[in-house]
Protein 1
Amino acid sequence: MTYDNKRLTVREWAKEDQPREKLLKNGASTLSDAELIAILMRVGTKGESVLDLSKKLLAQVDNDLDELARRGAKQLMKIDGIKQAKAVAIMAALELGKRRQLNEIKKKVKITSSADAYNLIAPLLMDLPHEEFWVLFLNQANVVMSREQLSQGGITGTVVDARMIFGKALEAQATSIILVHNHPSGNLRPSQADLDITRKLKAGGKLLDIKVLDHLIIAGKGYYSLADEGQM
């Protein structure tokens, strides 16, 4: 007699094939995305194993975890077999992953390149469906002292107040700043408005002896640095 794993519950599989057993024996890094999500969801549905349900969920987002992170509970629950408890478990796990990345700000991070700045703030912006404008405040040694959201807008733009930016920079005793905002559209190229506000802020910074080192545009997993592209 032969058995098809698709027709068996996970508990009926060989121990070495069960996601939880594999994790305990070999470590979490050895599991596939589907197996890790299966552990979060715990059980499948009648006629569908939890691993099959996990694979179906990933297929809905083209196996892209970043796209999965952008889905809210209501969107996840539209998939047959995923109820509130499963949706909440998935969202909580993805949020923990994001917070682990953001934990770096608690350490004194020195910015030596645009990539350093991107890695420090990207988890906050890469999955958002709307635009936000943030500023990194640095000291003389280019160490990030703080970061702050300055505005939040819609899908196509957000308002930037130069007085607020420099007021907070002076309050933080920052000697330089890095501007950051996201493009929910996925387009990395700066708009004319992006270029104009960068020039305006750079000119204002000179009057206050506060350097504007860069302006990053974040879209998905990528970014565009105006400084790297010679547009500062």
Protein 2
Amino acid sequence: MSILLQINEVGSNAVQTAAQTGVDELSVMDLAIKGGWIMIVLLILSILTVYIFIERYLAINKSLKEDSGFMNSIREFIHSGNIDGAKSLAKSAQTPIARMIEKGLFRLGRPLPDINAAIENVGKLEVSRLERGVSMVAVVAGVGPMLGFLGTVTGMVRAFFDMAKAGNNIDIQLLSSGIYEAMITTVGGLIVGIMAYLMYNLLVARINKVVFILEARAAEFMDLLHEPAK
């Protein structure tokens, strides 16, 4: 019974001491400041990655929007011999699919392999436009953790340097400062790297979907040129 009373007394004293001294709470700003210049670089990279992701995601989604009656209208114009009407429709649509079909319409009268090559070239250009900036997201996905590990190494070097400089008068607070910085940069680098990795793969998946649609519409257009006129 006396042992329990002693334990309770020690616990209450610890609580009172903590209440008197106050316990610091970590905030995101404190972590960023403590991490040093590497955290500033990681913050800039994260902002750049989010901006590129949002801008590219909206652009890719816009290119995925497709008028279900577009190819049927093109088919009707071609079968009726109204090539100019088909060109006007493709030009007014202002989508990657429409620009690809428009190029094929302007190549009508030439051999089919030439038309197919022209369509494929336009399709590649459209995909290249959609991929603009996506490689930067991939770079951040790889560089982010590396910067974090660099901060880890520099933080540990600083910790050991402080230990060597202090000699026999090693202060635990002095030692923990460098280790603290090392751990913060590691966490920051991994967070930025994982975020960029997920964003990159999501953008690639959306672009692959655009590629599939472009290939399908190109094949549909070439099949349309083989259909007999009604």
Protein 3
Amino acid sequence: MNDCQHFQPLTLPTGEPLPNGCVLVCHNFFDQIQSDRYFQSLLNSLNWRQEKIKFFGKEIDIPRLTAWYADEGKLYQYSGIKMIPNPWTPCLIAIKEQVESVVDLKFNSVLFNLYRQGTDSMGWHSDDEPELGKNPTIASVSFGSTRRFQLRHKIDNLGTLEVALDHGSLLVMQGETQHFWKHQIPKTSKIISPRINLTFRVIKATRG
């Protein structure tokens, strides 16, 4: 990670550093004008898909829309879903390069999630698929409505940590975070407008 005075490390409620990982948050990483422009562009131009998963033997829609953009041949699989990459667009490259300017990494892929309303969500999980390799760095950008991002340790009872990811924010998970922590975007009963989340990744290998 390059030096960035706007990044704040996520800590335990006691103020102690996060054990077994590193999570950094930068609010307003993208300014209001950039964030508004990118949100509208992504909402209207991406190849959004409604994926399905099997749940107790039944096929159901996942509670959000998704899109996968990456270098050629960089496939991604999770929860039985196999994602074929769409090619990068100038808009996506501009966002990626701004994120890469503060992260010492060149990303080759990005997973999009569109949370259309408060009932759209993402359950507890870790980004630990084999193709991401050991100790992956995940850079998460948010545009649109603010949503709660929660984390909990897989082993120790440290309670649920929470941070509000607002319009234009950037959250980076590094080190052992995916081995020891799970995260989610919970449902909310509040009436809220859509949110687009971009999680930039490095695919190191692909499964057949």
Protein 4
Amino acid sequence: MQNNLISEVKNIRQTLHEIPETGFEEIKTSKYVKMKLTEYGFSFESCANTGVIAYLNFQPNLESIAFRADMDGLNVKEKTKVDYSSKHEGKMHACGHDGHMSILLGFAKYISTIKSFTKNIILIFQPAEEGPGGAKDIVEAGILEKYNVSAIFGLHLLPTIDEGKIGINYGPIMAKTGEFDITIRAKSGHGAMPHTAIDGIYIASQLISIYQSIVSRNVNPNQGSVITIGKIYGGEARNIIANTVKMEGTIRAFDNKVYDLIKQRMSTINDGLEKMYNINIDIEYRDMYPPVVNDKTLYDILDKCLTNNEKHLLEPIMIAEDFSYYQERVPGFFFMLGSKNEELGYTYPLHSCYFNFNEEILIKGIEVYIKICKELNAFD
């Protein structure tokens, strides 16, 4: 890899790191991406408000390979103290999306030097991965069909994998996710006379306990799934039986059928408790990203591209990714680029205000994209 490309990618990353913007608000980010693409001779169109679809001399008669990078930052106050820290107060690229964009722009610069292509290469700079899911907007805009995309690839930095290792696997690797809000409406009363009231907090405790039996007693042990209630609040005072209790939680599963089963069992349990205690339990579900399911054929391509020393067998993880929307339309493969470096202190988790990584690994991401293209005979 040329030294000038390495320097270019580092500069890109640091510039992007200074201007984090949240979902569908990536105005400065989009402008910068377009500026670099123009410099490299690319054509592009805007999509999903701030998203950018880029290509070189698109040939309608050829199939296309797409590569995606997410663009958005997070509402996190940065505490890394690096020279290129965020200039946007209260916002930070704490999930490595600045690195993902830098890899894709570095890849763009590399392929701008290629003279002949047998496949189109489409670069997707996508907004709002952290929410509400810019991938869905791009898919629904018909971008994959418009550009004849037959396969799509994406990556994510991951600080639990050693620096420079490539985490790969096929099948479900990330979970389908959803949120739920519950409101229990019971009957208030004096704390000294509980027999005259219906205790919403007691019912909430039963609901939480019974929900935990769904995964342990209704779901096949070989099928990964999670129900988490992360927030609960209710009641008025220490000596008053709670009239209303609210809870907020999340559901995760690697299989759509398991996810639907969990929702069905939760609703059935709610109905039963309503009848038992003569109260009302309202639940609102918000289905979010589908599971990320890696195509086996594309896995074989990645497996062939990499040496044994480069590979890391990726265990499925319960976090979610809207890359899954692309995979519902075309074969897709999502892999992890390890960023863990204990010597340099790059061990903080994603979304941490201290998250950072060694920029040398960005070149590794570019190299993997180049290997994929060569293995697919997109260019020599």
